[in-house]
Design a protein that fits this description.
By secondary structure, the chain is an alpha+beta fold. It has two domains: 119 residues, Immunoglobulins (Immunoglobulin-like); 48 residues. It is 34% helix and 28% strand. β6 and β7 form a beta hairpin. About 9% of the residues have low confidence.
Length: 193
């Protein structure tokens, strides 16, 4: 009977410790989707929160999964200092733009190309918080920025305003022309009397 009590207590304590362990995990936050123009630079923002203070063992891994779902590629690594990739498509095209003290582990990708379309993942471990979420950012590189509805509305309002100014100006000019013509007729009529 005593063995069962110990077993039950151990299971309850284990469940509580597991719940605390999961609650202590690192949470990573990213934008879900980013659209950028071909040839430009783009900051991929990644921030994190941890129940532990930032440790000297904090590490950050950025990886890339192309749209064609070929193998993952390393993009960037941080452990006490930033490490650029020694080879691959992002060699000489990625720089660290984070601030560990502000829980920011962002990077900048330079000279974006259509082949950069895909999903970037940001993973942070902050000892003893070694488990947690992995942030994902889907990057879409486009040839040019699409005309948004707000831009269309602004152009439509601007065009309508210009058209109204032209119409009002034309009406004013016509009225003045008619008034002058009427005044001339009255002068001619007065002179004939």
């Amino acid at each position: 009977m005593l063995g069962r009590a110990w077993l039950g207590a151990a299971l309850i304590i284990g469940a509580q410790l597991r719940a605390l362990w999961l609650a202590a995990a690192v949470e990573v936050h990213t934008a879900k989707e980013v659209v950028a123009v071909n040839g430009t630079n783009q900051r991929l923002k990644c921030t994190f929160s941890s129940s532990s203070p930032v440790s000297q063992q904090l590490s950050v891994s950025w990886n890339f999964q192309p749209e064609d779902l070929s193998s993952h590629e390393p993009v960037f690594y941080y452990l006490k200092e930033p490490y650029k990739p020694p080879s691959g498509r992002f060699k000489e095209r990625v720089t660290w733009d984070g601030n560990i003290e502000r829980n920011d582990v962002s990077i900048i990708i330079w000279n974006l190309q259509p082949s950069d379309n895909g999903t970037f993942t940001c993973q942070v471990t902050n000892w003893p918080d070694v488990y947690g979420t992995i942030g994902e950012v889907r990057l879409r590189v486009v040839q040019k920025v699409n005309f948004s509805e707000i831009h269309f509305l602004a152009v439509a309002i601007g065009s309508a305003s210009v058209l109204m100014i032209i119409v009002v100006t034309a009406v004013i000019i016509c009225r003045q022309h008619r008034r002058r013509a009427r005044d001339r007729r009255l002068e001619v009529a007065d002179t004939e009397r």
